[in-house]
Design brief:
With about 200 residues, the chain is α+β, with helices and mostly antiparallel strands. It has six helices and ten strands; from the N terminus they run H-E-E-E-E-E-E-E-E-H-H-H-H-E-E-H. Helix content is about 30%, strand content about 25%.
Length: about 200
């Protein structure tokens, strides 16, 4: 019955499940795996780092230890080398233990798509301005273009793909709003985006 389902979720009894979004080659060599999760509860589920939340490759603890309600794509990324296998083991309360095993043969991030471009752009911008915006918030805001704007999506994708190739020196850090590309960075893609808008 619906009210029982709601009580079950509010009590934190539903499943919290991690997932691999995709794997992308890195320009400097190796790969980057992007992860997300779904928390079917109506409350935050806490899983501290340790035996119930293990990912040895995540040496800086980018993975969450607080899992917010709902579906959360592209929450964090982790680098690994060719020939290496990494595993994220998550055992949330009242959930089955899930172990995601990832290597270079895992599903690749589709090229020339907005989710991939946003992930790589946010990798670059959050590295340039650490602590100002989370990777998850950055990617969510970027992907919102598709639903909030709904046109010139390929041009916006191309712009973010270009940003994903930039180093920290290409960005200016605003402590309140995150990193912004410096003037002239990815200018050809900006011009194409403006042209699509009719500017």
């Amino acid at each position: 019955m619906p009210f029982l389902d709601t009580a079950y979720q509010k009590g934190g009894q539903a499943a919290t499940t991690p997932r691999l979004e995709c794997v992308a080659p890195r320009a400097s060599g190796g790969f980057r795996a992007y992860f997300g999760y779904n928390n079917a509860n109506g409350v935050i589920v806490n899983v501290p780092y340790g035996t119930n939340n293990q990912l040895a490759a995540d040496t800086t603890n980018q993975r969450p230890n607080q899992f917010r309600p709902g579906n959360h794509p592209y929450v964090f990324g982790t680098n690994f080398n060719a020939g290496q296998t990494i595993s994220w083991r998550l055992s949330a309360p009242n959930s089955p233990t899930t172990t995601l095993t990832v290597n270079s043969s895992s599903p690749r991030c589709p090229a020339n798509t907005l989710p991939t471009a946003c992930a790589q752009s946010c990798d670059a911008s959050t590295a340039a301005c650490p602590g100002s915006q989370s990777f998850e918030d950055c990617t969510a805001g970027c992907r919102a273009w598709e639903t909030d704007v709904g046109f010139c999506t390929q041009e916006f994708t191309n712009f973010n793909t270009c940003l994903g190739t930039q180093g920290p020196a290409s960005f200016t850090c605003d402590p309140d709003f995150g990193a912004f590309p410096n003037e002239g960075v990815c200018q050809a893609q900006i011009d194409a985006l403006n042209a699509c808008f009719g500017g």
